[in-house]
Amino acid sequence: MKFGVHISQAVGFKPAGADYIGIAQHAEGLGFDSVWLGDHVVIPKAITAKYPYTKDGSIGFPPTTPWPDTFAIFSAMAASTKKIRFGTGILVVPYRNPVDVAKSVATVDLISNGRFSLGVGIGWLQEEFQTLGIPFNERGPRTDEYLRIMKAMWTGGNTTHKGRFFSVPDLHVNPLTVQKPHPPILVGGQGEPAFKRIAALGDGWLCGHIPVDALRPQIDQLSNIMAEKGRKMSELTLAMISDPEVARDKKGVAALAGAGISEMVIYLRDLDIDQCRRELDSLAKAAIAK
To answer: What is the pTM of this model?
Structure first.
């Protein structure tokens, strides 16, 4: 099992750029495999949308949580580390111009020398979509179209595209990504729509925590959908975002690994920089110590 850390809610409310870099360096020194950040452009003050990963639908984080541009922060982290990987957990694809995102991903992959994974999703915060002028009910097909455009750009193929939501003329793309054919795309979400997106466009699944008994039938469903597309489960990376107490349970981690999860992304919450460092120290001893 690989272990990563998700730090969007573990840097306090007024972090400096050096704080993000320092946490990445500390995590690398402790032997963690990856650092992850979430993605929001703005957080509207009035929110009626239901967050899908809390029991009561509350948004799951303080509204004043900082959400810096992930590509800028990852570039700084990458330039200051040597081995640790970076990942978006998750990047909301339909928010942004896909050509611009493709260039940002290729740039992070360049600076990190191929240490970047792109976790993607369709988003849930309807008020944020409204603020950005993106129709909420189009987010699924818009995500699929944007991913196809980005993959064409990263592989240096014919990028000419005239679609429902976006058109791209024939153009030159440089730099291409270091990883070939492109950085791994891990699709977030659960259920048939997400699994169809994985089978059509993805290199892996990035799910929230699912108990192992409930996980196995979902993996079976994903396997069936992959087979329908002529693909094998061995082509995929299965990663799970979980809380620290899950990572500390070695028997539970072993059970998840037996079900097919190969990386656990530990989501750290309600911490400042000093607390984050101490939690990383503790988790390294409990979870990844040999």
So the answer is: 0.96
